[in-house]
Design goal:
The chain has two domains: about 180 residues, Periplasmic binding protein-like II (D-Maltodextrin-Binding Protein, domain 2, 3-Layer(aba) Sandwich); about 150 residues, D-Maltodextrin-Binding Protein, domain 2 (3-Layer(aba) Sandwich), CATH 3.40.190. It has 14 helices and nine strands. The N and C termini lie far apart (about 60 Å). It is of the alpha/beta class. Strands 1, 2, 3, 4, 5, 6, 7, 8 and 9 form a nine-stranded mixed beta sheet that branches. The radius of gyration is 21 Å and the shape is globular.
Length: about 325
């Protein structure tokens, strides 16, 4: 904290940046907490204007006109932008690689947060926390189930429920027999599913009692539970984790300021505050130790070992055809 404070004072003495620091954040990301808890401290300390803009979150072309100083991207976008030399390689001697969890470190990006899609239920935790096999067991646990209206996540979940080991899920999905197996498993549950399109809908299905279980972003259902002052259970085993990353475009007008903003944002106390507020996993290695014990136990970063990492490369190669097949299956 002292080092960061001295840095901020030195930057403030140098005067404000000539233009705002522009940060591009895609739809669905927690823009307000990212800005308030992680980025605004740098802007306040250096009298720099902070401008957050939205982009479509799809291809990298949306970040080229105009080029922002900092962008929040998926792992796939980060890898593609790094290969194309659109994103600058980060100076880890300044960022401090040892400050971040290993999965948050790459040549062109630093983790912003870890998001997780998991099995969740409303109410007190059962004697044995349910898993994906229980999600499919409508005879023993009757009731509707909530699933995202997408092939992404559902195919992985179906195979996990069918007994495929987490380490074999994507190898299985890369075969036609494996895909058929996933869709056959979804067939079994189809009459009991309520489909959702937005995380808030998934949380409302659960807290409103319309479903017994839901596969949903863990942060969305945890926030809904906290807002309603009741317990929402999350099964981390077999959940699907995906990192979102900060990247600095090579042609960013204020690349130096963006790097300094990332240094300030990486402060463990700020990261812990962000994690406690959003229920998302922090990138700082020391942040979990600053969380209250209950919050730490229910944060994704403390449960990484139980997760299946979402294979962005698999979905880059197969998403279009699999979503088309899923839509046709859904329409039957």
């Amino acid at each position: 904290m002292r080092v960061l404070a001295l840095l901020a004072l030195a930057l403030a003495a140098a005067g404000p940046a000539p233009q705002p620091l522009t940060v591009a954040i895609p739809p669905g990301a927690p823009a307000e907490p990212l800005r308030r808890l992680l980025l605004k401290p740098y802007a306040d300390a250096t009298a720099t204007q902070l401008a957050t803009t939205s982009w479509d979150g799809a291809g990298l072309d949306g970040l080229k006109q105009p080029v922002p100083d900092l962008a929040l991207v998926s792992g796939l976008q980060l890898a593609a932008g790094c290969r194309a030399q659109f994103f600058a390689r980060l100076d880890w001697s300044r960022l401090g690689k040892e400050r971040s969890v290993p999965a948050a470190v790459s040549d062109c990006g630093i983790g912003a947060y870890l998001a997780v899609t998991a099995l969740a239920w409303d109410g007190d935790e059962p004697a044995a926390a349910p898993g994906w096999t229980d999600f499919w067991d409508v005879a023993r646990r009757p009731g509707r189930r909530g699933l995202p209206r997408s092939a992404r996540f559902n195919l992985e979940i179906a195979l996990l429920a069918d007994g495929v080991a987490a380490g074999d899920v994507y190898r299985t999905l890369r075969s036609s027999d494996g895909l058929d197996r996933a869709f056959r498993k979804l067939d079994q549950l189809k009459p009991y599913i309520i489909w959702w399109d937005q995380p808030a809908q998934a949380a409302a299905l659960l807290t409103g009692g319309r479903v017994l279980f839901v596969a949903a972003p863990a942060d969305a259902v945890q926030q809904a539970g906290a807002a309603g002052h009741h317990h929402v259970g999350v099964q981390w085993r077999g959940s699907l984790g995906e990192w979102r990353h900060w990247a600095v475009p090579k042609d960013a007008p204020h690349a130096g300021g963006a790097l300094l903003a990332l240094i300030v944002a990486g402060d463990p106390a700020r990261q812990a505050s962000f994690a406690e507020t959003t229920f998302l996993g922090p990138a700082s290695k020391d942040a979990p130790d600053l969380l209250p014990l209950a919050a730490r136990a229910q944060n994704p970063i403390a449960n990484q070992g139980a997760m299946l990492a979402l294979d962005e490369a698999f979905w880059a190669d197969n998403r279009e055809k699999l979503e088309a097949r899923f839509a046709a299956w859904l329409a039957k």
